């Protein structure tokens, strides 16, 4: 009520100062009284409905604000969870890379050892083949020589020479 009276005085004060006629000649006071009565009637009948409108609006705004804050909180939680999952994924990726490097090293060691064994086997095989071919060549040459000697009538060999030639052929 004080606010209404202060507003009325604030509106009426300039007219008091600047009025060329006196207050008794104007209808200002009846108008102010009518305005105050109008406000009192409006206050009496419409206060609860206006208060209800503003209360409802205030509650709706508070509800929407709470929903927005809840959504903001959920978004922050989801962001934090996503950050945690990202960090976990980074750690897992580091572990996977480390495990892959270690596995690559172990596989490389295994294949290096296998290659060394294969090379040794090939060397032994090659040496055996060389020796076999050498023996084969010696036997072939001894056999050719024996064939020539047996076919030729000019050369006379005794039994010991034949035994030496045959033992060379066998070995």
TrEMBL record:
It is a single-pass membrane protein. Keywords: ATP synthesis, Cell membrane, CF(0), Coiled coil, Hydrogen ion transport, Ion transport, Membrane, Signal, Transmembrane, Transmembrane helix, Transport. The keyword Protease does not apply. Its main location: membrane. The chain crosses the membrane at residues 31-47. GO terms for cellular component: endomembrane system; plasma membrane; proton-transporting ATP synthase complex. This is ATP synthase subunit b. The gene is atpF.
């Amino acid at each position: 009520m004080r606010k209404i009276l202060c507003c009325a005085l604030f509106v009426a004060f300039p007219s008091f100062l600047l009025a060329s006629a006196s207050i008794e000649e104007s209808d200002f006071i009846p108008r102010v009284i009518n305005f105050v009565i109008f406000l009192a009637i409006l206050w009496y009948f419409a206060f609860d409905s206006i208060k209800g409108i503003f209360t409802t609006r205030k509650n709706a705004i508070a509800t929407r604000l709470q929903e927005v804050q809840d959504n903001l909180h959920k978004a922050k939680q989801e962001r934090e969870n996503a950050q945690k999952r990202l960090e976990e994924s980074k750690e897992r990726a580091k572990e996977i890379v480390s495990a892959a490097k270690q596995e690559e090293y172990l596989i490389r060691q295994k294949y290096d050892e296998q290659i060394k064994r294969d090379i040794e086997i090939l060397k032994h095989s090659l040496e055996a083949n060389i020796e076999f071919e050498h023996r084969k060549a010696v036997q072939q040459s001894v056999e050719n020589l024996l064939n020539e000697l047996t076919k030729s009538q000019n050369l006379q060999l005794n039994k010991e020479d034949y035994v030496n030639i045959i033992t060379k052929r066998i070995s």
